[in-house]
Design goal:
The structure is a homodimer.
Chain A (H helix, E strand, L loop, with lengths): L2 H27 L2 H8 L3 H7 L3 H25 L4 H18 L1 H11 L9 H18 L7 H21 L9 H15 L2 H4 L8 H7 L5
Helix pairs in contact in A: 1-2, 1-4, 1-6, 4-5, 4-6, 4-11, 5-7, 5-9, 5-11, 7-8, 8-9
Chain lengths: 216, 216
Amino acid sequence: MTKQERGTRTRDALIRSAAGEFHQHGYALATLSAISVGAGVSPGALHFHFENKAAIAEAVEDAACTTLRRTARIAYGHRSNALQNLVDTTHALARLFREDIVVRAGFRLSCSNHCRTELNLRQEWQSCVRQRLAEAADEGLLCGGAVRQQDLARTIVAATIGLVTLSQDSGEWLSPHAVTGLWRTLLPALTAPESLAGLEPEGTPAVIIHSLAPVG
Amino acid sequence: MTKQERGTRTRDALIRSAAGEFHQHGYALATLSAISVGAGVSPGALHFHFENKAAIAEAVEDAACTTLRRTARIAYGHRSNALQNLVDTTHALARLFREDIVVRAGFRLSCSNHCRTELNLRQEWQSCVRQRLAEAADEGLLCGGAVRQQDLARTIVAATIGLVTLSQDSGEWLSPHAVTGLWRTLLPALTAPESLAGLEPEGTPAVIIHSLAPVG
């Protein structure tokens, strides 16, 4: 392993350890010493990579953003139509939240007051949902006009953000079963019965798996 | 004013000031000195009423619970049918979240890890939604069987909790307009067209107003 590879590995371990600390104790109560112990490195090694707690929190946020955006982008690349893509994207993102502590902690940080306000992943998700619904309208999949489209976007954003909030109580809220149940309820409100038959509320397995593949 | 009335007034002012501090800075960063300054009382007066920060947080939670439960109970007392009652209750609770800092802060505290785990208002809301849907099924208002009922309950809980989470970004998410939009989207998924005509997604004004009346 080169020196650079070792550096990257240490930095990643610190980001992962910090994510665990932030997730468990919140930003305010997480300590740098617990983060370095968790990563199995010395306090000196931590300070070589990160100036302070704010800097490491920023790195956790950035890592979460990168993963979430990449997943949404790959899912979009495999889209069949805009509504199925929205379903597949929520399934892929839910799986990230279930499996990736950096995504969980980074999302929470990006939505809290403690950090940079220009970056709020909730708002980004909102734009993503609106865009997909506009595309679905162009594709003739959405029933109702512009007012209804706004109601639908708000309801989808609220329900999906709600799943993330509720997953703090129980991981079950972000299970494939729960996400499928959400879409079983919402899809009939979005589209006409003839379009509904071609949509899979449980997501397209191949797309979900592809979206989570590591960068090759 | 009697000594007891003055005591109650001071305690209420401390709870309100603490709610503001917890809401703005979070539990961990809120300070007792800021809370007593905000209430316009001496640190001694604070310590007469509350032993420490945990005790005052508990009082904020308890006050929020009392208000939320009372509002839901009054709305239930004015119900016409179970679905309309669910709509009216969400409107009345949304108004509490908009207008009452103690409710906002107390709800957040009750859902965080820092406080008592046996009291989680999110779980209580979940039970309330499930019960209303079971009643709606008994009243013949709900379409679909038990599996569908569980999907519906989860979707309603997720969407309403999502509104509360999103209201941290903008109060608009808990506006009457947003709550109405949510129900305009969800009600057609819950009930048959013939029942839908008799339901008001914008809530029953008299019930919402009654629910928020102070205890007489």
